[in-house]
Specification:
Helix content is 37%, strand content 22%. By secondary structure, the protein is of the alpha/beta class. It folds into 4 domains: 61 residues, no CATH class; 194 residues, no CATH class; 120 residues, Aspartate Aminotransferase, domain 1; 234 residues, 3-Layer(aba) Sandwich (Aspartate Aminotransferase, domain 2). Helix 9 runs parallel beside helix 10. The longest helix is centred in the C-terminal third of the chain and has 19 residues. The radius of gyration is 34 Å and the shape is elongated. It starts with a strand and ends with a helix. It binds pimeloyl-AMP (WAQ) and magnesium ion.
């Protein structure tokens, strides 16, 4: 097949504006000429007034195929860091004085071509030092799909592959002269093509290229001939540098997770969530639901969800501050405020968003947040996003908190804690925590995700648990657990709620929750207030199950629906969970990063509708599996 080399050079008032070269089949010549002319005549730097198009046939025997250099990326924090990487790569090639070369690269006068530097004599070999050596007659064998614009990476990789294959060539270093392009590279046969970023500051039009050559290995004239005249097609040029690298990087990280037994995948349920579920084709006893009162499956709650959808629509159609607030949202907010003994309440789409929104609204760069070390990820993320100074205190350790409060120089901020800790199931020391908040003039915030419907004589949560002797300024909760629906909320004084409705970005910029979720939560609250015996039943189950486990020789103490059974080793925990799964009992193993490394555990979660028979069977199975794993 006859191939053609096409070169285009365009200028305007003697200033170079665009250039390109291709090696293509005869059939593609016409289209390519059109494309290149188009590029020259519609260039961002102006319309060319001179376009030089050169078309030459290439004899089959003249063309050499080369395999593209492998590509990797080194992204550094600063230009100097990138040059440190370049320096060490040059040293690995036994280049004696890398700094001279780097200096030359960074400060050489602008040239159209490259410096040809001979390390055997420390001399520049290019005859015309104003122009330099220009590499030409090269292309990727598979053209990129979009030939209309310049692709720095692909063009550079083609050139670098040709240069690296030049006899006697040690390496190449390059900075682009495009002011917007800060990525440069180092390339050698041995190291491949190493993208270095940043190699300059954005806005600088300084570019340069140095071919590092060793005249003791090959004849300079032969090298120059190869660079300037040898026709080369490069195979295997990737379509783009980054997506490719991201895929490799992501695959590597997933592999690491698998090796560390930390990879997770989704488990699909084929039934509604209740004390028994169908999954993996089996009917299983579920000891892992947050629907602690089994309200997600309660007929009257489901009915209320359906009715709300039929009356109020499938979606809310707007954010709360625009057109999404329905009478239904207001009803639920009043009901929640009443339930939590506060003046007002505000709904969020999820508990995560409630924490994120509230914490970032109440704390900023000028504040401090004291946060329990075991707080839920949504609290941690809220703290980070707020930009406040974060002081982490020891888990539920009020003397550590007091000590750290004494040391602070901040006058405003937040003390924030889970009410019931999600992985340990213990209860925050609210009386002390709120007293410390008052003493230091900080707002106190408590996350009742696992407290609502679970603790307190009638399931009203942590304030009721402490007989209303204390109350946090901000009470956060969720509709998604004991209330069997979906969403989060904040209960507080009116002034705080008004502020949040204006400032909490996760509230302001979300579509209001759908009517079905709100209708369900309203009904759940009603059921819970009318039937506090559900809560008593749950609390009975908790005591009963802990006793059963203790009889099996397993440490288990909890006043909440969360009962951790700490195993330690990640794979032992996984094996035990699997053993239980084989006996149709679903209790997941919880691993890093949800809990610390080496603190893997089974996390049992109880429901009010579990029977004693189910719980004692589960405890016996756990006892046997744990004993087996210790052997
Ligand atoms: N032959 C020799 N030297 C050249 C050539 C050539 N064909 N073209 C440019 N140069 C020299 C010239 O001194 C330029 O100032 C300098 O190289 C930089 O050229 O993986 O865009 O065309 O994303 O600006 C690197 C891509 C892009 C990194 C490099 O070079 C990546 C680039 P530019
Ligand atoms: Mg350029």
């Amino acid at each position: 097949m006859t191939m053609y080399s096409i070169k285009m050079r365009a200028s305007k008032q003697d200033r170079h504006i665009s250039g390109a070269e291709k090696i293509i089949s005869a059939a593609a010549v016409t289209e390519t000429v059109t494309q290149l002319a188009d590029r020259a005549l519609h260039h961002a730097l102006g319309q060319a007034d001179f376009v030089n198009l050169k078309i030459e046939a290439v004899d089959d025997g003249e063309l050499r195929h080369l395999q593209a250099l492998p590509v990797r990326s080194s992204f550094a924090a600063s230009v100097e860091d990138s040059f440190t990487v370049m320096r060490s790569l040059l040293l690995q090639l036994q280049v004696e004085d890398p700094d001279t070369l780097i200096e030359l690269l960074r400060h050489a006068k602008p040239m159209r071509g490259a410096v040809l530097y001979d390390v055997a004599t420390n001399k520049r070999l290019e005859l015309d030092q104003e122009r330099g050596i220009r590499v030409t007659y090269m292309d990727a064998s598979q053209s990129s799909s979009d030939g209309s614009c310049k692709d720095h990476f692909r063009e550079a990789l083609v050139l670098a592959t040709k240069v690296a294959n030049t006899p006697g060539m040690l390496a190449e270093i390059c900075i682009s002269d495009d002011p917007d392009y800060v990525t440069g590279y180092f390339a050698s046969k041995q190291h491949g093509y190493v993208r270095l970023s940043p190699l300059k500051n954005a806005g600088s039009s300084h570019g340069g290229r140095i071919f590092i050559f060793d005249s003791s290995k090959a004849d300079p004239q032969a090298a120059i001939y190869f660079l300037e005249k040898q026709k080369v097609l490069v195979d295997g040029i990737p379509a783009a540098a980054e997506p490719q690298n991201m895929r490799v990087e992501i695959a590597r990280q997933l592999q690491q997770l698998r090796q560390a037994k930390l990879h997770r995948s989704l488990r699909t349920m084929d039934s509604q969530q209740s004390s028994h579920v169908t999954t993996g084709g089996k009917n299983m006893l579920l000891l892992a639901s947050n629907s602690y009162l089994d309200l997600a499956a309660a007929p009257q709650v489901k009915e209320a969800a359906a009715k709300a959808a039929l009356t109020w629509g499938a979606g809310s159609g707007g954010s709360r501050l625009t057109t999404g607030t329905l009478r239904l949202h207001e009803q639920l907010e009043s009901a929640l405020a009443r339930f939590k003994h506060t003046e007002a309440a505000l709904l969020f789409n999820t508990g995560y968003m409630a924490n994120l929104g509230a914490i970032t609204a109440f704390a900023g760069k000028d504040s401090v947040i004291f946060s329990d070390e075991y707080n839920h990820a949504s609290i941690i993320d809220g703290c980070r996003l707020s930009g406040a100074k974060i002081v982490v205190y020891k888990h539920n350790d009020m003397s550590d908190l007091a000590k750290k409060l004494r040391q602070t120089t901040f006058h405003k901020g937040l003390i924030v804690s889970d009410a019931v800790f999600s992985m340990d199931g213990d209860i925050a020391d609210l009386p002390q925590l709120t007293a410390l908040g008052k003493r230091y003039g900080l707002l106190t915030m408590i996350d009742e995700a696992h407290a609502t419907g679970v603790i307190g004589a009638t399931g009203k949560g942590i304030a009721e648990y402490y007989n209303y002797s204390c109350q946090a300024d901000i009470t956060m909760g969720t509709l998604s657990k004991a209330l069997g629906s979906e969403g989060g909320f904040i209960c507080a004084d009116k002034i705080f709620i008004d502020y949040l409705a204006n400032k909490a970005r996760s509230f302001v910029f979300s579509t209001a929750q759908c009517p079905a979720a709100i209708g369900a939560a309203l009904e759940s609250l009603k059921v819970l207030e009318a039937q506090p015996e559900m809560v008593r039943h749950l609390q009975h189950n908790i005591r009963f199950f802990c006793r059963c486990l203790q009889q099996e020789g397993i440490e288990a103490h909890s006043e909440t629906a969360i009962i951790p059974i700490v195993i330690g080793d990640e794979s032992a925990a996984l094996n035990i969970a699997q053993e239980l799964y084989d006996q149709d009992i679903l209790i997941p193993a919880i691993r890093y990063p949800t809990v610390a490394k080496g603190a893997a555990r089974l996390r049992a979660a109880l429901m009010s509708t579990h029977t004693e028979a189910e719980l004692s069977r589960a405890a016996a199975a756990i006892g046997a599996a744990v004993a087996k794993s210790r052997k």
